[in-house]
Amino acid sequence: MTDRRERGTSVDEAGADALRGDVRDLGALLGTVLREQGGQEVFDAVERIRHLSIELRGARSSTIEPLLAATRELPFELLGAVTRAFATYFHIINTVEQQHRIRSLRARRRERSDQPLAESIAAAVAAIPLDTPTEDIRAFVAALRVTPVFTAHPTESRRRTVLDHLARLAELVDRRGDPRLAPDERGDVDRETLETITLIWQTDEVRPRRPTVLDEVDSILASVGGSLFDVVPRLHDDLDAALASRLTEAGVRDTGEDGGATFMRFGSWVGGDRDGNPNVTADVTRATIGRHTQLALRRYIGDVGRLARELSVASSRSAPSDELLASLDADASQLAEVAAGLGPRYEREPYRRKLAFVSERLGRTLSTPWDAAGRADRLVGGYQAASDFLADLLLLDESLRAAAGARIADGGLRDLILRVRTFGFHFAALEIRQHSGRHEETVAELLASAGVEASYATLDEAARQVLLESILADARPLPLSLALLSPAARETVETLQLVRTIQERFGRDACATYIISMAAEPSDMLEVLVLAQQVGLYPAGRGAAGLGIRVVPLFETVQELGRAAEIMARTWALDTYHRNLDAWDRTQEIMLGYSDSNKDGGFVASNWWLYTAQRELAASAAHHDVNLLLFQGRGGAVGRGGGPMHRAILAQPLGALGGRFKVTEQGEIVFARYGQPGITRRHLGQVVGAVIRASLDPEARAGQQPPDPSWSDVMTRLAEDGKRAYRELVYETPEFLTFFREATPVDVLARLNLASRPVSRGGSGSVEELRAIPWVFAWTQNRCNLTGWYGLGTALEASAANDLERLRQMYARWPFFRSLLDNAQISLGTATLEVTRLYAPLVQDDGIRERIMGRIEAEYDRACQLILDVTGQASILERAPVLRRSIALRNPYVDPLHCTQVELLARWRVTEANGSDDAEADRLLGTLLRTINGIAAGVQSTG
User: Is 354 a catalytic residue?
Assistant: First the structure.
């Protein structure tokens, strides 16, 4: 259940009516499919359950036990059909709501064409003070950079096949909204819609096997590829148009070293993230960049073909430049067979003739494996680099502009130029992530095999730094024999060798970011540089000019967040590290982990220590003359740093942004934000707009630090009190782990083939070893949402007793604190402890059940009441009526899925424990997994 804050009374009323109409119509079509596929018995059972659930919610009953009893009475096969019916309903309704959001945005733009859309790029530019010097704006635009990074973190529970069907359904919903449709055309749409719903019904939504890493690569590229290629030029249009009234010339095209800067960049961890995933190998990473390249080149070939059809400019009407004519002669000489095939064709249409050669070069580039041996010889006639392709496009652009064709150049040709500048031949920068412990082990083996140091692992931090610095200062690789290394260490070195190969082919930015998980000391960064030096990626080594590695420490526990600035200050003081900084224009990227810090210290402490870490890192970077780029490791759920992105950016501390924003996009969020171009444009426009406002709007900048310095002390106390309450429950109450394992479906999540990566870092089953995603996912499934609020009530209570008025001022005047409480409201508002109580009886020990559930309920009530006291609301989410209404409408349809899950969990666990009937256990598990998908769709969140 996402937070929707779009405004507009008349538009909203009309949109709500249209939405209700489509929901009603699509619901009726689903009913038709239910009768066709399951018979009247299935339809009647669904209706009985639906009406009972609505009745119980409408009566504001404190329990939904009667619904649980009703589901228990259903035969198993009928229960499975009912589960699929409600899950399918949510898949359909989510698609309808998404399409209506796009329609609503269009309607607002039409109705208020003289006003910028709220939270848009235009609104952000309009907020820049009129007395801001033009050169300051130009300098900001030239440096502006927004970088979403896609990850395969396992929170997308739907199969790619299901997503494809939903994408088709979205197109049909969009067509249904066309008022120009004739009755027979409307009937055609309805028939296609029925076909698609039937396909969704007959498709197994549960993955039959765990996806491979390359399956994940293909899925991500399929989700984002089309939208990003389409949307990037439109985002530049949006910024150009917004700046037109502020600058004498269009802002974006006229900046940048080669005459055209792009402010969007994209990255991906999929196929590069090794931390805890043994399935990611050098061969997998090599295949991944190959898939990236194929996606980009195929798109460019299609774009060039469309351009060739459009650019029918005749030389008799518009004389081509001498440079273009010279290039055509060179093309004909180098690609003689192509020239012979063209013959007199396009003799008087030089642009089409040039594009025919361009298309041939792209085809040859595509047909040759990117890392083929002897590539330079095999690529005769192909493009060695994206810069060569770009040079041909710029030649066309310059020729058109010189002959009164600027308007033509600003069409499809400009769009293609922007795409090539943004995506190159690699589409998205492939980022590597590995655990710091792996680097320590690899360096220890390397030093031992080279006869430098036999016991590196036993050295203290100071001794490690001295040794590693001496190796880097020597500027020579150590004698390296891969055969002497363990398989794990060998893979680490081979990965860095592959990074160098990718850079040599696509340029340094295609694969340079190397993220170090669980970084805790300067030696963690130096170890990576020593390994990079062995393959020529350290600036002082023997590598080719321009190659290098961007070392990015990831601080992800509360303890390391508290030490982050101190760790980096010690690192920046090292001479050998400075050499690497200089290779990157003294820019240091640092990643902050929201998920593990929340699991470690709870919601309040995690948010505050992330805020203070950013603030302290910004101050330390300024002191050391370092340009700081913070990489936000946010997930989809509030407990993993999620929530409205625009609001989160504006709540960053002063100095944390600097016109650059990098963030992870994970799991189901990827399809939700990037599956439809209209949604993608709105989402990225909101992000870019927020970065502009946070950087150039004085009012927004004023909110990036507490107006009253004493408020930081208040937050520190809140964080400590919240952390204490959270850890007392989660880590210091031994029986809590029993409650968690039995009152959530965490054991089933391990069977859901979400991703190639294991759900746990170890085999003990402890909270420490469990990954943050299944930790959050499990609490989402039983509707407790514990990770998004627990500890907040206790923290606020301690301060409110003597200082309630100050807390109210903090909420009113400090965006960070307001964002903290508003995000907690989303978690509390979407939680429903009536449902959590259904799961509690799954805990076998009555005493454990009552004690832990009692503490959770007490903290929930405490958090709700204190938030109301501080915010002045009468109810949670009072100021977010659209979200409240969405929750209220969805709950009666999610409740039956919860009841089914609780019933089947009890049966499945008994069957599993007895171990006597594997077939029955598998049958129960199959439907259980479908309840997980259905609940995730119903609450629009997994983890």
Answer: no
pLDDT score, position 258:
42
The C-alpha atoms of residue 469 and residue 465 are separated, in whole angstroms, by 6
Amino acid, res. 895: D
pLDDT tens per residue, range 646-656: 888 988 888 88
Q: What is the DSSP string of 909-924?
A: HHHHHHTS-HHHHHHH
pLDDT over 90, % of the chain: 63
* Two tokens, residue 676: 């439809």
Among the listed residues 756, 930, 792, the one whose alpha carbon sits nearest the alpha carbon of residue 869: 792
pLDDT reported for residue 662 = 95
**Nearest alpha carbon to residue 49 among 21, 81, 77:** 81
Entry field: residues in the chain: 943
Confidence (pTM): 0.89
In this predicted structure, the answer to whether residue 139 has a pLDDT above a threshold of 50 is yes
| In the predicted structure, residue 541 carries a pLDDT above the cut 50 | no
- Is the pLDDT reported for residue 154 higher than 60? no
Distance CA 861, CA 942 (A): 24
Domains and CATH numbers, the chain: 282-423 (1.20.1440.90), 429-585 (no CATH), 710-939 (no CATH)
In the chain, the percentage of residues whose pLDDT exceeds 70 is 91
Torsion of CA 494, 498, 501, 507, to 10 degrees: -140
Whether residue 153 lies in the annotated active site: yes
Closest of 367, 425, 427 to residue 220, by C-alpha: 427
Rounded Cα distance, 310 and 413, in Å = 10
Q: What's the count of helices (H) and strands (E) in the chain, helices before strands?
A: 38, 9
∠ CA 759-762-768, rounded to 5°:
85
State the SS3 of 421-483.
HHHCCCCCEECEEEEHHHHHHHHHHHHHHCCCCCCHHHCCHHHHHHHHHHHHHHCCCCCCCHH
DSSP secondary structure letter of residue 276: T
Burial 726-759 (b: 16+ CB within 10 A, else e): bbebbeebeebbbbbebbbbbbbbebbebbbbbb
User: How far is residue 80's CA from residue 67's CA, in Å, rounded to a whole number?
Assistant: 16
**Which one-letter amino acid corresponds to residue 717?**
R
Burial grade of 914 (CB within 10 A; 0-12, 13-18, 19 or more)? exposed
The CA radius of gyration of the chain, in Å to the nearest whole number, is 29
> Which of 434, 291, 932 has its CA nearest to residue 668?
932
Output the pLDDT for position 595.
76
Which is catalytic among the residues 439, 599, 646, 898?
599
Q: Which two tokens stand for residue 86?
A: 């409600």
pLDDT score of 941: 61
Specify the 3-state DSSP secondary structure of 514.
Answer: strand
Q: What mean pLDDT do residues 755-765 have?
A: 55
Residue 167 CA to residue 189 CA, distance in Å, equals: 15
Candidate list 91, 153, 292, 898, residue with the active-site label:
153
For 302-340, the pLDDT digits (tens) are 999 999 999 999 988 999 999 999 999 999 999 999 999
Token pair for residue 262? 């792009």
According to the model, what pLDDT value does residue 510 have?
95
Cα distances from 139 to residues 133, 144, 246, 633, 894, in angstroms, run 10, 9, 14, 28, 50
Cβ partners under 8 Å of residue 614, min gap 6:
592, 630, 652, 653, 656
Residue 29 has pLDDT above 80, yes or no: yes
Write down the residue that tokens 């709500």 correspond to.
16
pLDDT at 542: 45
DSSP string, 620-646: HHHHTT-EEEEEEE--SSGGGT-S-HH
- Compare 525 and 202 and report the one with higher pLDDT: 525
Q: Rounded distance, CA 38 to CA 926, Å?
A: 18
